[in-house]
Structures are given as C-alpha cells and as structure tokens.
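Handoff note, outgoing to incoming analyst
You'll be picking up this chain. Sequence as last confirmed:
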Amino acid sequence: RCMATRFHQNNNEEKDTLIALLKYRRDLDLLFREKWYRIPVKYAPKMVREGTIRYLAFYQPATFKEEAFKICWYGPVQSISKLKRRDLLPDESSHPNADTLYYRIELAELSKLANPIISRRKRRMLFITTTFQKLKSARELNDVFLESPLEERFWERLKQERIDAERQLLAQIKQHIFYLDFAIFSMNGKINVECDGDTYHTSKADVKRDKKRSNILQTDGWAVLRYTTDQINHNLEYCIQQVKETVNQYGGLQDAIDPSKHRYLDDGNNQLRLFTE
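Most recent structure output, in case you need it:
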C-alpha cells in the first residue's frame, strides 16, 4: 500500500540531505524519466524513515566509467512511498526481491551540480547523510561529511596543512566493520586518526571498546592515533604535528590521485620533498 509523506521547509542546520549510491546507468536513466529512486526499507537511513530528508544526491561508482566516482546529480524530495519491488518495477515481477519493501523517493526535479564532487581516492560508499549547504559547497567527497564539532575542527586543520584524509572510511577486518574518523595513507603504512569526544569515549566500557578496536586495526597494519576533546580544543597544533611526524615515519603522504607519488610533510624541520617512484 502506498503511504505518501509530504515534506515541509526545514530551516535549521541539521542533516537534511542524503547522498546515495547510483549503482547502474539504468538507474540514472530511470531518474531522468520518472524522477524517483528506491531504497530497501531495512537499509534506509534514519532521515528517510523519519521523513526529514529534503534533498537526495547521487554518487556514481566505477560502472559509470568516465563519469565514475563523482556526485553530479541531485534534487529536492517531493514525497516518499513505501511499496513492494514488484509494484515499483512491474516488468521485473519475477525478481527474487519482488516482495521486498522499498521506499520510493520522488524528486520534484533533477539538477546537475555546477561543479561535480569527486572522490580523489575513488572510494566505495553506500550512503552519506549531510546538509544541503555542505553538498553545494563541497569540492571533493570528504568535504560533504558532517560529523561532530571535534571532527569538523580537525578536518579544517588537516585541509589547511594539505594532509589528504578519507573521512568515515569503512574498514572491514575479518568479521569486524569499523568506520574511521580519518584514514591517512602514507607510502609504507596507513594511519587512523580518531577524535574521542567526551560523550562517547569516557566510560570504562567505552575505553575497553576503543582499546579492542585499536588492537584489531593494528593487526591489519593500521597505526592508530587518538585525541581527546581537551587535546583538540586546547592543543590542536600538537595533534597535527604528531600526525605529520607519524606520516613522515611511514615514508611520506601518499598522493590521493596518483599513489606512486608521495611527499614528506613539514614537521618543523622543513622536510618538503616530492618523490615519484
């Protein structure tokens, strides 16, 4: 049964935009023709389930070839319906998921970003929740994330220092799945930087969980740097300096676009060199 929800203007700065994976070109063709997108109910982000989504944008993976690893298209959400797949796609009624429930997200229009948002490291993703302001101002994929104030402050300093990092990168190690605050790649190693806010990282259970997480990451070759609220708020320069020193110890910062290139970061000793192997 169709259960439509209409959307109203929301002027606060809370997340109101979903960036979703546009898996195949035929899905883009469907958007052009009918202006709707589907998400399985069981996988739908909270803003879809609660009806707070205002804009929907699309990330194009490797199947798009020359247009791959970009966010090009977006649109304002007009309504949401909950339907079975067979009702959404009658021509595919024999599909194994024909009776699965989906959200049908209808767009008022489909527009193209003036400057497509690229993923320089060509990463995989499924959903990113953010704000429309972030979507419109982002220069590359990592700019669209909106996380804690601590992470946002750390991200701004990393950008100022030209330290490439992947935000909320999925790391799967055996049966464990982690989302890393900042993943930094050097020529001889990989570094996970975590911003441990007081709200979620101060209890004994939190400390125990974080230690276990760090240990698992380290077994997969990750160096782990953790910074507290106090360190980020009152001694951010020391944190950034330590990140630089760690990157240099691992052979310099790997270029996000051309992994064969790397450079040492200025760690106070004017170590600014560019290497090509």
